[in-house]
Design brief:
single chain; 196 residues; mainly beta; 5-stranded mixed sheet; 4-stranded antiparallel sheet; 17 strands; 48% strand
Length: 196
């Protein structure tokens, strides 16, 4: 095993059973190999993951990506973008090489796609000048922050708040939910406040 790339003279000496010998020396070239290095975003589901292999040493001229979900990229792109179809942890493999020699290096990295909450809510009987109770029904990965806009200038950060409407109309009520990983979802529903 050669410790460094370069051109090395390799000598072969052969002997016959009668003590005769012959020698040949040829130069043997040892090519360098790149060092594959990459980083990736940790994202919320529904957002693309950005990969960056520009820190690889060489620099390499070929890049083959296996994103760990059955999809690959062989376009020699050091900074691909990939959208995962599910939230999970994926083992991503990068093979970076030199196209002229075929020498390559392989590295792996676990990439995380966080689960995003799905915002949902219901409201009880909606009558003018009577408190309306909103019930959070958001799912996935337990939201821990709620931002309500009741459409009438009022809002709340409670999980299941109440609001008193003082005029009969249709209001667009928005709920924004966020989980511990800062993954966000929102939903807006029209709310009809009936007169008495």
């Amino acid at each position: 095993i050669y410790a460094a790339p370069g051109t090395y003279p390799v000598t072969l000496i052969v002997f016959s059973g009668l003590g005769c010998s012959d020698t040949i020396t040829l130069n043997h070239e040892v090519f360098p190999i790149p060092t594959a290095i990459f980083s990736a975003d940790t994202v919320c589901f529904g957002n693309p993951t950005n990969f960056d292999a520009t820190a690889s040493i060489g620099p390499p001229t070929t890049y083959f990506w296996d994103f760990g979900d059955g999809n690959t990229d062989n376009t020699n792109n050091p900074t691909p973008v990939h959208l995962y179809a599910t939230a999970d942890t994926f083992t991503v493999t990068l093979i970076a090489g030199f196209g002229t020699t075929g020498c390559s290096d392989t590295t792996n990295l676990d990439v995380i796609v966080r689960e995003t909450p799905v915002a949902a809510f219901v409201a009880d009987t909606i009558c003018l000048n009577n408190p309306t109770t909103f019930t959070d029904q958001s799912v996935n990965n337990f939201p821990n922050q709620w931002t309500w806009d009741f459409g009438d200038g009022n809002g709340s950060n409670q999980q299941s708040p109440t609001n008193l409407y003082t005029s009969a109309s249709t209001f667009n009520v928005q709920l924004v939910v966020e989980n511990t990983f800062c993954c966000i979802d929102s939903v807006t529903n029209p709310l009809v406040v009936e007169p008495l």
